[in-house]
Amino acid sequence: LQVLKEKEEIRNAVKNARLAGKTVGLVPTMGYLHEGHLSLVRKSASGCGITIVSIFVNPTQFGPMEDLSKYPRDLTRDLELLANTGADIVYFPKKDSMYRDGFSTWVNENDISKGLCGKTRRHHFRGVLTIVAKLFNIVQPDVAYFGQKDYQQAILIVNMAEELDFSVKIEICPIIREQDGLAMSSRNAYLNPSERKEAVIFNRTLRFVENEFISGKDSVEDLTMIGSVYFHDNSSTAKLEYLEIKDAETLENLKVIDEYPAVVLIAGKIGKTRLIDNLILKKSDQPVFTLMDEMEQTGKTVTDNFQG
Length: 308
Ligand code: PAF
Prior knowledge:
The chain has eleven helices and nine strands. It has helices spanning 7-19, 35-47, 75-83, 95-98, 117-120, 124-139, 151-163, 193-198, 201-214, 220-234, 291-297; strands at residues 2-4, 24-29, 50-55, 89-91, 143-147, 169-173, 239-247, 262-270, 273-281. A six-stranded parallel beta sheet has the order 1-4-3-2-5-6, with helices on both faces. Strands 7-8-9 form a three-stranded antiparallel beta sheet, with helices on one face. Strand 8 (262-270) and strand 9 form a beta hairpin. It is globular, with a radius of gyration of 19 Å. Pantoate binds next to strand 2 and helix 6.
């Protein structure tokens, strides 16, 4: 496992890989890796000739009151995990090489990024899209892997790749969960034992909404209302930020879930820790749906340069 810090080093490594006929997979991360990240690395390692994992705690996606300085970091542990998971190169850039003084060029999305998490995290998606665009330009991967847990982020990245003509295939991989259903996240490390117990309310609420949907309720207003009531009745310290049901492909509003697929998304706080989760809503007789399948069916993934 090689650790490279400079853009030139990455570009050379990618050039050499291509000369050797290898396809290039990129897994962008902010480090403090867990099984969710490792599932992306395994997917890349099995599908691409080389796998590059970037580790960069991107300051521009954190708000002024958010947890940038406290964001968990453990490079030694990350490198150990990656060496055992099939990664070839870790790209670990310095902040100054990503953002020079006076940096002022941004990727802004003006629609989907304003709702859901964008309501409370005003510049978050501008920071995410800008750093992901930079990583795509530096690494020029054939395939880039992201997790479905950050659903709004995933849709925004797929749209950005399409609208700005990045020649990369975007793969969105399923959420990896703890045994009790809590979606894996680096932020789970902030939870104390009683908060950790309570954190399961986010996934339980999604499952409750799913059950109500399966048993026949299809009004978005009704489902979100009973979901919110369930959350409030079954949590003590957790605070709900939003529970919304959207078109799974476009994240547009729905009134009724009649045309599949839909996605129910939840965000909230336990103490100071902000958690998010989501679940695709499908009836049992519907074929299994993943975000990735849907993107493929609708031709939304960009496959131009994909040889792997
Ligand atoms: O999902 C994340 O960890 C980050 O938002 C990403 C995509 C690595 C950009 O910093």
